[in-house]
Amino acid sequence: MIGGPLSDDSALNRSGSTRDATPRPAFDAETPLARLLAGNQRFVAGKPRFGHHVDAPGARTTQHRPWACVVGCLDSRVPPEAVLDQDFGSVVVVRTGGHVLDEAGIGSVEFAVSVFEVPLVLVLGHQYCGAVTSAVRALDGGDHPGGAVGRLVDDIAAAIDPTDDPAHRVDRAIDRHVARTVSVLSELASTRDRIAAGTLEIVGARYQIDTGRVTVLG
């Protein structure tokens, strides 16, 4: 069984464990993904189940027992809880520009995997990603942004193939960047053994802004 609750006032109990006597339903590595995709189907159909009301039961509980972690972009058009139609307490979300992960981002994923013991990490890229578009333009035009924004461009640059058809370069870079993020997360010390044991799956997906649909990649 996969467990690991957190209370609202303490991450660890006195024994150093986050487990308590309240069981959480056991999920295999594929069931959480099916639940997220089913939620996206409801979203696309215009029939979402969850409205995120503050007085909903999931918003007022002391138990935090998420069953998936979504790593996504900060783009305001792609709020994971909405496009995957999930209720309070279902998913933990890590969002940065172009889902580029620094130590804090990776640490957040490791926390979700090690403490919450989520069986799924979904890396969600998206159509019209501004961070990827900026990286492509920087490489094509030689106009590299300064400061921390340049860090985003440098990370994404490895996913850009200058031999791609210019008309499809951004879209292909988006998908490659998702695949690279999946690879990075899959090689963490905190994830490798769980993946090998079949208790964790790390999956890449793409959100189409034109249609609202999420498609699993690879």
From TrEMBL:
Residues 1-26 are annotated as: Disordered. Residues 10-20 have a biased composition (Polar residues). Pfam families: Pro_CA (PF00484). InterPro entries: Carbonic_anhydrase, Carbonic_anhydrase_sf. It comes from the Bacteria. Belongs to the beta-class carbonic anhydrase family. Catalyzes the reversible hydration of carbon dioxide to form bicarbonate. This is Carbonic anhydrase. It comes from Planosporangium thailandense. The lineage of its organism: Bacteria, Bacillati, Actinomycetota, Actinomycetes, Micromonosporales.
